[in-house]
Amino acid sequence: MNKANLLIADDELIERQTLSDILKLEGYRVATVSNGEAAVDYVRMNPVDLIILDLRMPGMSGLDVVKVISRLSPDVEIILLTAHGSIESAIDALRNQVNDYLLKPASPTQIIESVEHGLSRRNAKLKARENQQTENSFNENAIVTLGDGTVIDYGRRIVRYGNRSILLTPAEGRLLRIFIENVGSVFTHRELVLRVQGYATTQQEAPEILRPLVSRLRQKLSGVPSLMERVVSVRGTGYVFENEPANPDGFNNIENSYS
């Protein structure tokens, strides 16, 4: 029996019941709601792995629900239900957290296959994150020593330069580590939010989330010659950690050790 938790949000009673019956026969645990507001409330209070969401509902539309769910529970897979006239809107939604869409009326086979694919994607993402967390845990006590004597202790989230000890927040520590380990690589705003914060955002939201974080990190590193002025904005794209520090000799010698 499949133990995944599914939510169906559709204002049509017959549609909700039909989808529920099909998926319950496949062993899924299925809940149903009749509007977008109820879908958001349900996700706030209950574990949900995948949502089948009607694009057009009275009140809060399917796309509005997608935007809220993307922030509220970014690991939830979303499948949109749409009529032929709304295909463009459904395709546009794929740029956000929506992973698939079904044209009404969808056959049982199409519904089941779409749900299976969505859950497979979710499981793959969770597995990859688990592997990354395991790797990070193994290396969490890594200490990097730069050529000018600056020491970065990732486990304690401390940057030491001379007599200074700069304490970083968890997000600042993750961001600095990404930059240090990928010198010269350009990251988009969305890539950095996903890697630092662990959730997906839209192209419009990501810069707003990153700007204050990058600003704080730059300010904290402003007095460290080998790290200052290294985080550079790439117009319209994201950020890059430049190869050359303010002190050209600051990065000539990097040693990695594990405590």
* Total number of beta strands: 13
Global geometry: elongated
Q: What percentage of amino acids are in beta strands? A: 15-25%
SSE series = EHEHEHEHEHEEEEHEHHEEE
- The CATH topology of the largest domain is Rossmann fold
Helix/sheet category: alpha/beta
Distance between the termini: 45 Å
What CATH architecture of the largest domain do you see? Answer: 3-Layer(aba) Sandwich
**Unreliable sequence segments:** 246-259
Q: How helical, in percent, are the residues? A: 40-55%
Give the strand order, joined by hyphens, for the main sheet: 2-1-3-4-5
Number of continuous helical runs: 8
Rounded Rg = 23 Å
The overall number of domains is 2
Overall residue-averaged pLDDT value: 81
| The CATH homologous superfamily of the largest domain | Response regulator
Q: What is the name of the CATH class of the largest domain?
A: Alpha Beta
Q: Biggest sheet: strands, sense, closure?
A: 5 strands, parallel
